[in-house]
Amino acid sequence: MTLQEFFYMGGYAAFVWPSYGLALVILLVNLVVPHWRERQTLRQIARQNRRVRRSG
């Protein structure tokens, strides 16, 4: 099997490669979004703590 045949996927490349691409995007989103939300939540908690200390 040549590299060209591999990438052609027996004529199904138009379906296979976009599926791999979509799966990769979903996996990356599943890695990045929780990290982003954690940072956002920690910033929000820090802001609330600063407000409590000022009004305390």
UniProtKB/TrEMBL annotation:
One Pfam family in the UniProt entry: CcmD
Membrane topology: Single-pass membrane protein
The keyword Transport appears for this protein: yes
Main location: membrane
Ranges that cross the membrane: 12-33
Keywords: Cell inner membrane, Cell membrane, Cytochrome c-type biogenesis, Membrane, Transmembrane, Transmembrane helix, Transport
InterPro entries assigned to the protein according to its UniProt record, in alphabetical order: Haem_export_protD_CcmD, Heme_exporter_D
Subcellular locations according to the entry: Cell inner membrane
Its biological purpose: Required for the export of heme to the periplasm for the biogenesis of c-type cytochromes.
Family to which the UniProt record says this protein belongs: Belongs to the CcmD/CycX/HelD family.
Record-given protein name: Heme exporter protein D
